[in-house]
Specification:
Structural class: mainly alpha
Number of helices: 4
Number of strands: 3
Distance between the termini: 54 Å
Radius of gyration: 24 Å
Helix content: 55-70%
Strand order of the largest sheet: 1-2-3
Shape: elongated
Largest sheet: 3 strands, antiparallel
């Protein structure tokens, strides 16, 4: 609810922009798209793509981290799993944002350069965020499958009710 100070925001945002553009510049040639990267600008044959501040993934990162903390608090008793979910939200967001930028580059090159702007671009961001949420849930499901929560068993022979006497009658 309190905005991150601009100095800290920029210290996080710029490295995310550069990382996203580096990943896209390395992945797109593997997928057959020639690329020339200059800073956070990816020059494609169809048009240049700028990984702007809005495309850095910082908003998705803050949102997914917050949701991971809330989800972990509400759905998990084990503290280490809560921490794992919160920390895992960082690489999940970075990878999802990289996929979004690579996908945008592929769309621009092979389909329509206008796909990098407008409604399609915005809806692609929402879709990738939902995929990030599903990945976070999948991680939690995997942890619960591999490391089930230990539930203490009650031994019916030693369990006695404080309101019952040994003969089974209730005390008044």
């Amino acid at each position: 609810m309190i905005p991150i100070p601009t100095i800290i925001f920029n210290q996080i945002t710029f490295p995310l922009q550069v990382l996203a553009s580096q990943v896209a510049a390395n992945v797109l040639p593997v997928l057959g798209v020639p690329v020339l990267r200059e800073g956070n600008v990816i020059n494609l044959p169809a048009m240049p793509l700028e990984v702007a501040e809005a495309c850095s993934g910082i908003r998705s990162l803050m949102s997914l981290l917050t949701l991971a903390i809330i989800y972990g608090y509400l759905m998990e008793k084990r503290l280490w799993v809560r921490w794992t979910l919160a920390i895992a939200s960082i690489p999940i967001t970075v990878i999802a944002n990289d996929v979004r930028i690579v996908g945008t580059g592929l769309l621009v090159q092979y389909w329509d350069p206008q796909a990098a702007e407008g409604y399609f671009h915005a809806s692609w961001g929402w879709i990738i965020f939902v995929v990030s949420l599903i990945m976070l849930y999948g991680l939690h499901a995997l942890i619960r499958l591999l490391v089930p929560e230990l539930v203490p068993e009650k031994d019916s022979r030693t369990h006695t009710d404080s309101l019952a006497d040994p003969r089974g009658r209730r005390k008044l």
